[in-house]
Specification:
Strand order of the largest sheet: 13-12-1-5-3-17-18
Number of helices: 15
CATH topology of the largest domain: nicotinate phosphoribosyltransferase
Protein name: Nicotinate phosphoribosyltransferase
GO cellular component, one term: cytosol
Function: Catalyzes the first step in the biosynthesis of NAD from nicotinic acid, the ATP-dependent synthesis of beta-nicotinate D-ribonucleotide from nicotinate and 5-phospho-D-ribose 1-phosphate.
Family: Belongs to the NAPRTase family.
Catalytic activity: 5-phospho-alpha-D-ribose 1-diphosphate + nicotinate + ATP + H2O = nicotinate beta-D-ribonucleotide + ADP + phosphate + diphosphate
Helix content: 25-40%
CATH architecture of the largest domain: Alpha-Beta Barrel
Radius of gyration: 25 Å
Largest sheet: 7 strands, antiparallel
Number of domains: 2
Distance between the termini: 27 Å
CATH superfamily of the largest domain: nicotinate phosphoribosyltransferase
């Protein structure tokens, strides 16, 4: 597209592309915008170096290669702040500039937003299901090594308390946490000693190294014996025990009763093992103190993409739109606001032609904000941005009508009203 547009002179026409989702993933009632900060960090570094251009020379002409060698995104970007909820048709991102510069960054934009928003939406559902109990992201071994860092960031934005990924802590300052694996317990196996004896030796080693506030994994062999060994090794001030298998509801009740009988009344119970929002919700009545979630989280809990698209909606100020069956788009650059009741519960999202906000007699909040101007990032991307996004998700979930937090399949939590250009 770039080569053809450069050849026929259309590459420098002024355009607007929008990122939106025609529909939410099956069964979802809201989406969570995540990835904005990562995109704004990536844009200034998005270049085509000599190696890239040498590869592209296999099929591109010299004019196109020269354009790419000097490529710098110099357009404007508006959109929803990271952490905002979104709904079908929400104009999540508006990218303005020449056709050439906007089309070159399409895959970068979509790959970031489709991945991060899918993870954040799944994480938000898990946070809602867990109530006030903290969740730890533990999915690094279930996804690509680079995606793991982005997933930890998205989960933290959505309300997870910590991650087991140390690179996410180094890069984004996300709190970290984790526990030992079954391998450490089995490492202490001996031919001349039964499992319960070697398990106790493993626990003593872990406590000696990390202190009594550590978390001991108690289900390698027998849970009841494991709990007894854990308290024997650390005493009644043991930080936590973790259960990673079995009938978690039954086991947590038994373990809580056993811990209390042994005097370890403050010892917490951490559960893990293929958890998702549904199994977390099923455990709400059980004495669980925190959850470790891996595979389901980093795969979007059944929705690994947010289904976002990047569509041309304006050329030289003229609205343009697709008419393809079931893939229609609405022409013209857009902005949005969200209407709520006096109580703060949101009732409607209104998408309108940019610069022409409709009057409202009800409380409303503008959603579209400036993110970049002339290629320069104008939104906050420092350390406080992640905390702000985290607060925005929490307030957004709090503002949903109660049925919007249901895990069961259903319509979007609020309707989206489109005001035509």
């Amino acid at each position: 597209m770039l080569a053809a547009a450069l050849r026929d002179g259309t590459a420098h026409r002024q355009t607007t592309f929008e990122v939106f989702a025609r529909r939410l993933p099956e069964g979802r009632r809201y989406g969570v915008v995540a990835g904005t900060g990562r995109l704004l960090e990536a844009l200034p570094q998005f270049r085509f170096d000599d190696d890239a251009c040498q590869l592209l020379a296999q099929f591109l002409d010299s004019d196109t290669l020269n354009y790419l060698r000097g490529f710098r995104f110099g357009g404007d970007i508006d959109g929803y702040a990271e952490g905002e909820l979104y709904f079908p048709g929400s104009p999540i991102l508006s990218v303005r500039g020449t056709f050439a510069e906007c089309v070159v960054i399409e895959t970068l934009v979509l790959s970031i937003f489709n991945h991060d928003s899918a993870i954040a939406a799944a994480a938000a559902r898990m946070v809602s299901a867990a109530g006030e109990r903290p969740l730890i992201e533990m999915g690094s071994r279930r996804t690509h090594e680079r995606a793991a860092v982005a997933a930890a960031r998205a989960a933290y934005i959505a309300g997870f308390a910590a991650t087991s990924n140390l690179e996410a802590q180094r890069r984004y300052g996300i709190p970290t946490g984790g526990t030992a694996a079954h391998a450490f317990t089995m490492l202490h196996s001996r031919d001349d000693a039964p499992p319960e004896v070697t398990e106790l030796a493993a626990f003593h080693a872990q406590v000696d190294a990390l202190g009594v506030d550590t978390t001991l994994l108690v289900d390698t062999y027998d849970v009841t014996t494991g709990v007894a060994n854990a308290v024997a090794a650390a005493g009644t001030t043991l930080g936590a025990v973790r259960i990673d298998s079995g009938e978690l509801g039954v086991l947590t009740r038994q373990v809580r009763e056993q811990l209390d009988q042994l005097g370890a009344t403050k010892t917490r119970i951490v559960v893990s093992g293929d958890l998702d929002e549904f199994s977390i919700a099923a455990l709400r009545a059980e004495p669980v103190d925190s959850y470790g979630v891996g595979t389901s989280l980093v795969t979007g809990s059944g929705a690994p993409t947010a289904n976002m698209v990047y569509k041309l909606v304006e050329v030289d100020g003229m609205p343009v739109q697709k008419r393809s069956n079931h893939k229609e788009s609405r022409g013209g650059r857009k902005e949005a606001l969200r209407v709520s009741r006096a109580s703060g519960t949101i009732t409607e999202e209104v998408v309108y032609p940019a610069g022409r906000a409709p009057a409202s007699t009800e409380p409303c909040r503008m959603l579209t904000i400036p993110l970049a101007r002339a290629g320069r990032v104008v939104a906050d991307t420092d350390g406080g941005a992640l905390a702000a996004a985290r607060k925005l998700v929490a307030s957004g979930l709090h503002s949903l009508p109660w049925e919007g937090l249901k895990l069961a399949h259903g319509d979007a939590a609020i309707p989206t009203r489109q005001i035509p250009a």
